[in-house]
Give the backbone structure.
Amino acid sequence: MASFPATFKYTKDHEWIELAGDRGKVGITDYAQQQLGDVVYVELPEVGTKLKQGQSFGTIESVKAVSELYSPVSGEVVEVNAGLKDKPETVNSNPHGSWMIVVKLTNPGETEALLDSAHYADLVK
Amino acid sequence: MEQAATQVLRKTPLNARHRASGARMVAFSGWDMPVEYSGIVQEHMAVRTRAGVFDVSHMGEIEIAGKDALAAVQRISSNDASRLQVGQAHYSGLMTPHGSFVDDLLVYRLAPNHFLLVVNAGNIEKDYVWIAGHIQPVGDAVAVDASSRYALIAVQGPESLAILQSLTAVDLAGIKYYWFAHGEVAGVRATISRTGYTGEDGFEIFLPPHASDRVWQALLEAGKRVDLIPCGLGARDTLRLEASMRLYGNDIDETTTALEADLGWIVGWKKDDFIGAAVLREQKAKGVERRIVGFEMLDRGIARHGFDVYVDGERAGAVTSGTQTPYLKKAIGMAYLPTDRTAPATEFEIDIRGRRSRARVVPMPFYKREGRAKTDRSVAPHG
């Protein structure tokens, strides 16, 4: 049984966001990494990129498939996890610890629409 | 996520075992098949370094028998079956009159006048109709679709001989590459073939369907000691691509000829007429305009099946297979290029989701296991 941190919010596209003030760390869920299988590339945006909620901010590629990464919130990319370029497999081994970008939220009200861990767990059950 | 298939998928005799074991299942060529058990990379590495076991019962088996069975096989199959001894098998093609592939297959000589053709799962009906129609004028030979009479389990990897040997009295070391023998495996009557689709040493075991689960379980038990693991079609695909084996529907099909696919070695140039012979002989004499190459990516990214290929800025074809290989840890693939651009080290470009990415022609096979006698002819089949 996968466990999804209660302190995160989730999208139906299987991203998580960990909010702290007006910033949020974004990654993909354990369920998503299981579906993808062995991750070999993570392509992330430049710092300064402006995102709208639901907009693609990068791609993640496994041996068998490519998926878009969608931003859970609108905002500006203020940090990018460059370590994933060399060690993309950490997305598999530690999905909830492998943040990809940090977004500075421009519309914090949007987070209301995200799922909490119980609802997300139901979704992927 | 995969869309639910509307058609009813076929199931191998091991289907319930795969589901009970938690394999991830996908629809493949009309079959409900395991794509991965523990993960493609882990399964791939198990086969390269230890052993893995695959259910490949979806493959089709067509038998041809009768006084003129050899002549029938010679007509429909590109390779020269007269060179097969009883107990021996080879890779071949069912060619169209244009020298392109109806399918690729393995031909086993079971008896002087009895052959077993192992064909791709998605082509069983098409092949059977093709074969039955084309052998009719040959004389006394009948083709039977015997696919439902066989389960097929592949055990592949450097430890596969030791594992399988613990379950059979057949002297496996005495079976040469691309030969086979009959005997019992775990008390079940079987035909054991030293073949595979992974580029590794290994065996494919033909079994009565009802007893296949017993052999599957016995193999897993006997392999525990060396960490043999069950593998799915995902690893089968990365393994075969690393070994440069063609996949029907990707690298070869009814639009590509044996010579374009660099498979001239499966054409029996010295034998009498066969379907496709005229075009292939002409292509051999005059040369082909395009040919398959192996490539590796110079820029980051995986070039996948169907991605456009550019030579000197002009679209020149498409990637036929591509992946990130778990063992070599490179992005590799195959594509057809204009023949004058197929020399190793030639650079070209592939459109990876809108980005032109550089690739370089490299010799095939990408991976070749150590210690194999003589030349590896990047032996092929099967999807």
